[in-house]
Specification:
Helix content is 36%, strand content 23%. The chain is built from eleven helices and 19 strands. Strand 12 and strand 13 form a beta hairpin. Helix 4 crosses helix 5 and helix 10 packs antiparallel against helix 11. The mean pLDDT is 96.
């Protein structure tokens, strides 16, 4: 895939400089680092991870990159003495390394730091492109799916515990309980949505204050061990509210229609259109920024939001993709409701990784 991207762009090498917080860098190297490193891939199959000497043994043991090269191996200390400038010395050895590979043209991702991009343009023909690993990550391997399944199980366990021990009065208490429970189990949850009342009419409102008739709970942690996310939302009802419950029933109907459609070869746009059709048929139209105001879903993996999107843009879903299906309705004078599951696209349907009761009432 990367070789094809280089060939199509008429480039000799692809250069990335990032930490493992960057999902594309981690996917390419499988090396955890919080200091930025350079990863180089050549059209001839050359693959190099450039690391400090102190990281070489660990990188050789943990990374899946073919060749690990330490800065000291290629004269960083000598260059540092010459220039008395760490960045200048680093750029000198990077340029030399590429020239040794007879590089003429370099492909760089949009997020490459400008100090590297500018230096490369002095020596090579440089083309900026979307990171090719973003497209590679769309279809998950069986091991990646198992990692997302693992995070899904953790979410469901915490959500089940929450329902069985619901004694909370404020949104902040719910969020703290969910995040703490997940962290203790080895998962990092950030910005968990626990939203109530009219504030819940904003889909990404994290929620605050006293819990009213209902509570949208949207949990999307990643594993601290393997880094893969999952995503799950349910709307809990704490007091009877017919208007909100009818809205929620409509989004559950819409989600179930979408889940029936998803399979290898289906156009995601058609799934999104079906969700809109179901909601509209039940009297929930979208206009003036209210109603169903976001996409039906998104890819999930090393990032919480990644390709593909289930939206009004055409994209063919493929076996092995992992996506969310999350219709919702939002009205500023009433509030919002949402249901969401993470699913794997299979040949003749989809597998739900976050199977759980859709209707949860605590009253």
């Amino acid at each position: 895939m990367i070789a094809n991207t280089l060939r199509e762009s008429d480039a000799d090498f692809f250069v990335m400089y990032a930490t493992s917080i960057n999902a594309n860098f981690y996917y390419a190297t499988r090396f955890k680092t919080y200091d930025p490193l350079t990863y180089i891939f050549g059209i001839d199959g050359t693959e190099i991870l450039l690391v400090p000497e102190m990281e070489k043994r660990r990188a050789e043991r943990e990374s899946r990159v073919k060749e690990i090269v330490s800065l000291e191996d290629i004269g960083f200390k000598e260059k540092l003495k010459e220039f008395n400038d760490a960045k200048k010395a680093y750029l000198e050895i990077l340029v030399s390394l590429l020239k040794e590979g007879r590089c003429r043209r370099v492909l760089v991702p949009e997020e490459l730091p400008s100090f590297i991009s500018f230096e490369l343009t002095k020596h090579f023909d440089v083309k900026i492109a979307r990171n090719p690993f973003s497209k590679l990550r769309m279809v998950k391997s069986s091991s990646e799916i198992e990692k997302i399944r693992d995070t899904s199980r953790a979410i469901l366990g915490v959500f089940r515990w929450l329902l069985e021990n619901f004694r909370f009065e404020r949104c902040e208490e719910v969020r703290r309980a969910i995040d703490t429970k997940l962290f203790a189990a080895g998962y990092l949850a950030e910005n968990t949505i626990c939203s109530t009342g009219k504030l819940s009419a904003d889909p990404h409102e994290p929620g605050s204050g006293k819990i009213k008739d209902h509570l949208i709970i949207d949990i999307f942690p990643k594993s601290l061990e393997h880094g893969y996310h999952s995503d799950f939302t349910r709307t809990i009802f704490l007091r009877e509210n017919n208007e909100l419950e009818e809205m929620y029933s409509a989004v559950v109907d819409a989600q179930e229609e979408a889940l029936r459609m998803i399979k290898d070869g289906i156009d995601a746009k058609d799934v999104h259109e079906k969700v809109k059709e179901v909601l509209s048929s039940q009297g929930y139209n979208t206009e003036n920024g209210e109603g169903f105001i976001h996409s039906t879903g998104h890819g999930i993996g090393l990032e919480i939001h990644e390709e593909p999107r289930i939206s009004n843009q055409s994209v063919i879903l493929k076996k092995g993709m992992v996506v969310t299906v999350e219709p919702g309705l939002y009205y500023k004078d009433v509030g919002g409701v949402r249901v969401e599951d993470t699913v794997v696209v299979r040949k003749n349907g989809c597998e739900v990784l976050t199977t759980f009761e859709k209707f949860n009432r605590i009253y």
